[in-house]
Design brief:
The protein has 112 residues and is mainly α. It is built from three helices and no strands. 5% of the residues are buried.
Length: 112
Protein backbone atom coordinates (compact mmCIF):
# COMPACT_ATOMS: atom_id res chain seq x y z
CA UNK A 1 0.00 0.00 0.00
CA UNK A 2 2.86 2.37 0.82
CA UNK A 3 4.35 1.75 -2.61
CA UNK A 4 1.12 2.79 -4.29
CA UNK A 5 0.92 5.98 -2.24
CA UNK A 6 4.58 6.74 -2.99
CA UNK A 7 3.86 6.31 -6.69
CA UNK A 8 0.84 8.63 -6.35
CA UNK A 9 3.03 11.24 -4.64
CA UNK A 10 5.52 11.00 -7.51
CA UNK A 11 2.77 11.46 -10.10
CA UNK A 12 1.35 14.45 -8.20
CA UNK A 13 4.79 16.08 -7.96
CA UNK A 14 5.41 15.59 -11.68
CA UNK A 15 1.98 17.02 -12.59
CA UNK A 16 2.57 19.96 -10.24
CA UNK A 17 5.98 20.62 -11.79
CA UNK A 18 4.44 20.59 -15.26
CA UNK A 19 1.76 23.06 -14.17
CA UNK A 20 4.27 25.32 -12.41
CA UNK A 21 6.28 25.63 -15.62
CA UNK A 22 3.21 26.71 -17.58
CA UNK A 23 2.64 30.17 -19.08
CA UNK A 24 -0.83 30.52 -17.59
CA UNK A 25 -1.13 31.98 -14.08
CA UNK A 26 -4.13 29.84 -13.11
CA UNK A 27 -2.15 26.71 -13.97
CA UNK A 28 0.69 27.94 -11.77
CA UNK A 29 -1.71 28.35 -8.85
CA UNK A 30 -3.16 24.88 -9.47
CA UNK A 31 0.39 23.51 -9.58
CA UNK A 32 1.17 24.94 -6.15
CA UNK A 33 -2.07 23.49 -4.76
CA UNK A 34 -1.33 20.03 -6.20
CA UNK A 35 2.24 20.20 -4.90
CA UNK A 36 0.97 20.96 -1.41
CA UNK A 37 -1.39 17.96 -1.59
CA UNK A 38 1.55 15.79 -2.64
CA UNK A 39 3.48 16.98 0.41
CA UNK A 40 0.50 16.16 2.65
CA UNK A 41 0.39 12.62 1.28
CA UNK A 42 4.14 12.29 1.69
CA UNK A 43 3.97 13.36 5.33
CA UNK A 44 1.12 10.94 5.98
CA UNK A 45 3.00 8.08 4.33
CA UNK A 46 6.21 8.80 6.21
CA UNK A 47 4.33 9.03 9.52
CA UNK A 48 2.68 5.67 8.94
CA UNK A 49 -0.39 4.22 10.60
CA UNK A 50 0.39 3.23 14.14
CA UNK A 51 -1.97 1.50 16.50
CA UNK A 52 -2.03 2.15 20.19
CA UNK A 53 -3.65 4.19 22.89
CA UNK A 54 -4.08 7.95 22.97
CA UNK A 55 -0.94 9.83 24.02
CA UNK A 56 -2.09 10.41 27.60
CA UNK A 57 0.03 8.87 30.33
CA UNK A 58 -1.86 6.17 32.20
CA UNK A 59 -0.87 3.10 34.14
CA UNK A 60 -0.98 -0.19 32.27
CA UNK A 61 -0.75 1.17 28.69
CA UNK A 62 2.48 0.29 26.91
CA UNK A 63 2.09 1.66 23.40
CA UNK A 64 1.07 5.15 22.45
CA UNK A 65 0.14 6.64 19.10
CA UNK A 66 2.21 9.59 17.93
CA UNK A 67 -0.04 12.48 16.92
CA UNK A 68 2.75 14.60 15.42
CA UNK A 69 2.27 13.56 11.74
CA UNK A 70 -1.44 14.37 11.87
CA UNK A 71 -0.74 17.72 13.54
CA UNK A 72 1.87 18.57 10.90
CA UNK A 73 -0.51 17.67 8.08
CA UNK A 74 -3.35 19.70 9.59
CA UNK A 75 -1.05 22.71 9.92
CA UNK A 76 0.19 22.25 6.35
CA UNK A 77 -3.38 22.06 5.03
CA UNK A 78 -4.31 25.35 6.70
CA UNK A 79 -1.17 27.08 5.44
CA UNK A 80 -1.58 25.77 1.88
CA UNK A 81 -5.22 26.89 1.83
CA UNK A 82 -4.19 30.40 2.88
CA UNK A 83 -1.37 30.52 0.32
CA UNK A 84 -3.66 29.29 -2.46
CA UNK A 85 -6.29 31.90 -1.57
CA UNK A 86 -3.62 34.60 -1.57
CA UNK A 87 -2.30 33.43 -4.95
CA UNK A 88 -5.81 33.46 -6.41
CA UNK A 89 -6.33 37.06 -5.24
CA UNK A 90 -2.97 38.03 -6.77
CA UNK A 91 -3.87 36.36 -10.07
CA UNK A 92 -7.26 38.06 -10.17
CA UNK A 93 -5.73 41.47 -9.45
CA UNK A 94 -2.99 40.88 -12.03
CA UNK A 95 -5.58 39.92 -14.62
CA UNK A 96 -7.56 43.10 -13.86
CA UNK A 97 -4.45 45.26 -14.18
CA UNK A 98 -2.68 43.62 -17.12
CA UNK A 99 -5.71 42.30 -18.99
CA UNK A 100 -4.12 38.87 -19.50
CA UNK A 101 -2.97 35.87 -17.51
CA UNK A 102 -0.24 34.83 -19.95
CA UNK A 103 3.20 35.23 -18.39
CA UNK A 104 4.92 35.91 -21.73
CA UNK A 105 2.58 38.82 -22.48
CA UNK A 106 3.24 40.33 -19.04
CA UNK A 107 7.00 40.47 -19.54
CA UNK A 108 7.00 43.99 -20.95
CA UNK A 109 8.41 45.15 -24.25
CA UNK A 110 9.12 42.73 -27.06
CA UNK A 111 12.80 43.73 -27.40
CA UNK A 112 13.82 42.06 -24.14
Amino acid sequence: METLITLLVGVLVSVATYLLLSKNLIRVVLGTAILSHAVHLLLLTMGGLKTGSVPILEDGVGTYTDALPQALILTAIVISFAVTAFFLVLVYRTYQTAGTDNLNEMRGSSDE
